[in-house]
Amino acid sequence: MTDTSTTATGSAVACDCGCPIHHGKPRTVWSDRQCRCVLVCATQPTTVVAREADCVLFLDPAHHHTVLSAYLLPMGRIDWPSCAPIAGGDDPRANRILAPLLASIINYLNAALPVLDL
Ligand SMILES: [Zn+2]
Ligand SMILES: [Zn+2]
Predict the structure, then answer these.
(1) pLDDT at 28 over 90
(2) From the CA of 25, how far away is ligand 2's center (Å)?
(3) Which ligand is nearest to the CA of 38?
(4) What is the extent of the structural domain holding 27?
């Protein structure tokens, strides 16, 4: 994987998963080697888990037209150092197709979750 430093403005929400470097703080870097944030961490944007491809996909919080992916590890952990724009950011077609789909899923969930009362 490339050593792309994937940074973002992050969310204002603080990590609540016990990650050794983020707990109690917002997350602004998505490819940090020491990060142990889990999928259900409060800092993690809405994420699609693609088990067939052993990866997760989510929209870059700072650039909603960019889709980030990271490898899924055993036990549901995520290989954060592998986090990078899909196709290394050099294939705009993938972002053009996936970013609107992810945005629709997020909009749908935001609208549906209060109804589902989860
Ligand atoms: Zn973390
Ligand atoms: Zn966390």
Answers:
(1) no
(2) 8
(3) 2
(4) 1-118
